[in-house]
Design brief:
Layout lengths: L3 H7 L2 H4 L3 H24 L5 H22 L1 H15 L1 H4 L5 H19 L4 H15 L11 H21 L15 H16 L1
Helix pairs in contact: 3-4, 4-7, 4-10, 7-8, 7-9, 8-9
Length: 198
């Protein structure tokens, strides 16, 4: 059985993430996801690795979004405190770890979506809505806004994964067994998460 890290390496994850801070966060996240992927593989031997990878990354993406939404009020209060005590310039040096984690997870998810050649309009819609959720005070489309820069990072990851899928087939390269299945999985997971929080 191949690990999640192995599949993501084949998709070019290490060339997508090149900053030292990103690389460290990526290594930590992959260690966690590798263990979870191995557990799921042993529980669901009837499923293809492609389906398991897609399902795990979709679930991880939704969990990161949920965590971000649940901590939104606390994060805003903390940012306001930083601005009041340190000033806007110095407060900008602090990052919201939930935002950072959500961006990282979403980029990995987009990489997988690209590699499995998921529908472009579906991916673009989620890139835009996730960026808007991360930076609600900013608008997508303005090239200098953080929301637009993050949206572009998401789409870059999608294209990166798509490019990797065009390379000559490797024996372990992950491919979806049922194309177009993502929308149903995503809707189902979102409903489950809403029930837990509702």
């Amino acid at each position: 059985m191949s690990s999640l890290s192995h599949y993501l390496t084949e998709m070019g994850v290490h060339t997508l993430f090149c900053h030292q801070a990103e690389t460290h966060s990526l290594k930590t996240l992959l260690a966690h996801l590798d263990a979870e992927f191995a557990r799921i593989q042993s529980m669901r031997p009837d499923k293809s690795d492609a389906d398991l990878l897609l399902g795990l990354m979709t679930k991880t993406h939704l969990a990161a979004l949920e965590q971000l939404q649940q901590t939104e009020d606390k994060s805003e209060a903390m940012q306001t405190l930083f601005v009041q005590t340190l000033g806007a310039d110095h407060a900008g040096r602090f990052t919201n770890q939930y935002q950072t984690d959500c961006i990282l997870v979403t980029r990995l998810w987009m990489l997988v979506l690209g590699n499995q050649n998921m529908d472009f309009s579906y991916v673009a819609e989620h890139a835009e809505s996730t960026a808007a959720l991360l930076f609600p005070e900013e608008k997508n489309g303005l090239s200098h806004s953080r929301a637009e820069q993050v949206r572009r990072q998401f789409m870059q990851a999608y294209y990166h994964g798509q490019s990797a899928s065009q390379l000559p087939s490797e024996q372990n390269q992950v491919r979806p067994s049922v194309p177009g299945k993502l929308k149903a999985i995503y809707r189902w997971l979102r409903q489950v998460l809403r029930r837990k929080t509702g």
